[in-house]
Specification:
Elements lengths: L1 H23 L7 E8 L23 E2 L4 E8 L4 E7 L8 H7 L11 E5 L27 H18 L4 E11 L4 E3 L10 E9 L4 E7 L13 E2 L2 H14 L4 E5 L6 E3 L8 H20 L5 E2 L3 E9 L13 H4 L7 H8 L3 E9 L2 E5 L3 E2 L1 H11 L7 E5 L8 E2 L2 H6 L2 H5 L7 H14 L3
Parallel strand pairs: 2-10, 4-5, 9-11, 16-18, 17-19
Antiparallel strand pairs: 1-3, 1-6, 3-4, 6-8, 6-13, 7-12, 8-9, 14-15, 15-16
Helix pairs in contact: 2-3, 4-5, 8-11
Length: 440
């Protein structure tokens, strides 16, 4: 009797066990991906200026050395979707992402599903030209350009729409390798660097290369204020080199890291500024290609994303500001208060993405490398995390972000362009770590 009863109970117990296992150890669903790209280079008749150096006085670019692009990777597991956008430009002002999302509401997109990562090229579209709140009419600060703003918003929104079409099942793999001697700390007396080159290989289920994400931490500043042509600087050369080496129509997307104090180290005997940028990008592309070939992508990668708000400290300006950043950008004691109040928000956010064993932590500005390494260490404490990359200047530029010690130390450009006091760096670190902790 007992044996007969047990035989009847076995199917029920098995079903309960399967249900229990499925609830707590879900089988990863297939992830679909789609890519697209769009040329952001403004036509010269638009008379767009280049961002990054106040001494250019918002003079229009004189030509196009190499074109600047935005690229999108749309990811979906069926019920959810997310888009990562990289762009060969200086940065995005607060509110820009919301404007892009507003154009996509009929397609179901919300701001928290979008992550914008600019390369920070100093020979590309000016940040001030994209900011409707920039009404100061100070040439050193950049002049708001309504037509350029509308054109850029429309192109990025259209890019996301295009990338959403015809998605395919993808496989994903990532690797981080150290590179010594390719970047340096530009803050006097500080030797901290982030040596991580992080690559993510995204192939179709059939094995065709679809996209590559490249994270490397350094300012794209080989060109000075005297170079007046549009260019993606070394990240543009890096992406084109890797795309040529891999072939098959692959889309390579570069995003910067915690580059607030990181400068590139030129290759020996590189020549002019344009030649230095090209050689650096090409040789970095060759290294990336070598490591890309070793990645073994896996099917059904984990996929999640999370956004958290971050309340910012009280807005202020550094005691050194008027002699450094203020002088460069044409600000004085009369207008600096209005400048800080109008252009710097009281709240920001951090969006993080998990793709396989990689976590990209979005940081809304220029984080110092030491703080970036602190974020990476904290996020790596999760057992499933193997690769962590900082997505620098994510979605919006709110400030440089230093340790309290470096802020009080002052000196140089970085401290003077930090507009929330000595607690900003620690505030951002806590916020972005907390945001990444929400990933599953």
């Amino acid at each position: 009797m007992l044996g007969r009863t047990m035989r009847k109970l076995i199917p029920l117990l098995t079903a309960l066990c399967v249900g229990f296992s499925t609830q707590f150890n879900p089988v990863a669903a297939a992830v679909l991906g789609g890519v697209s790209r769009v040329d952001l280079t403004p036509p010269l008749e638009l008379k767009a200026s280049l961002g990054g150096y106040g001494e250019r006085m918002s003079q229009p670019a004189t030509g196009i050395h190499d074109r600047v692009w935005a690229k999108a990777l749309v990811l979906s597991d069926g019920p959810r979707r997310f888009v990562l956008v990289t762009a060969d430009i200086l940065g995005f002002p607060p509110g820009f992402k919301n404007e892009v999302a507003a154009r996509l509401t009929t397609e179901g997109w919300r701001p928290e599903q979008i992550l914008l990562l600019p390369s920070h090229s100093h020979t590309s579209i000016d940040l001030g030209a994209l900011n409707p709140a920039n009404t100061f009419q100070i040439p050193q600060l950049g002049l708001f350009h309504q037509e350029l703003h509308d054109r850029t918003v429309a192109k990025i929104a259209g890019l996301i729409t295009t990338a959403s079409q015809n998605p395919t099942v993808i496989t994903v793999g990532s690797v981080t390798v150290p590179l010594e001697g390719w970047n340096r700390n530009r803050r006097a007396g500080n030797t901290t660097v982030d040596p991580d080159l992080t690559l993510t290989r995204i192939d179709t289920e059939a094995g065709k290369p679809l996209a590559v994400l490249v994270n490397w931490t350094a300012h794209p500043t080989f060109m000075s204020a005297q170079e007046m042509m549009f260019s993606g600087d070394w990240p543009g050369h890096l992406q084109r080199t890797l795309e040529a080496l891999i072939g098959q129509g692959v889309t390579v997307m570069y995003y910067n890291g915690a580059e607030g104090d990181q400068a590139p180290v030129a290759r020996p005997d590189s020549g002019s500024a344009w030649e230095r940028a090209e050689r650096y990008g090409r040789e970095l592309g060759l290294i990336a290609w070598r490591d890309w070939t070793r990645i073994q992508p896996q099917s059904s990668p984990a996929f999640d994303f999370h956004t958290v708000p971050i309340a910012l400290p009280q807005r202020t300006w550094h005691p050194d500001f008027m002699s450094t950043g203020g002088k460069e950008y044409g600000l004085n004691e009369e207008n600096v208060g209005r400048f800080v109040e109008r252009l710097f928000p009281t709240e920001t956010h951090s969006t993080s993405l998990r793709l396989g064993d990689l976590v990209i932590v979005g940081v809304p500005g220029e984080l110092a490398s030491g703080l970036g390494l602190e974020v990476k260490r904290a996020v790596r404490e999760k057992p499933w995390v193997r690769q962590v990359a900082i997505g620098g200047l994510a979605d919006e530029w709110v400030s440089y972000m230093l340790t309290a010690e470096e802020y009080h130390k002052g000196g140089g450009y970085e401290a003077s362009m930090s507009f929330y006091g000595a607690t900003l760096g620690p505030t951002i670190v806590r916020g972005v770590i907390g945001g990444a902790a929400g990933l599953k």
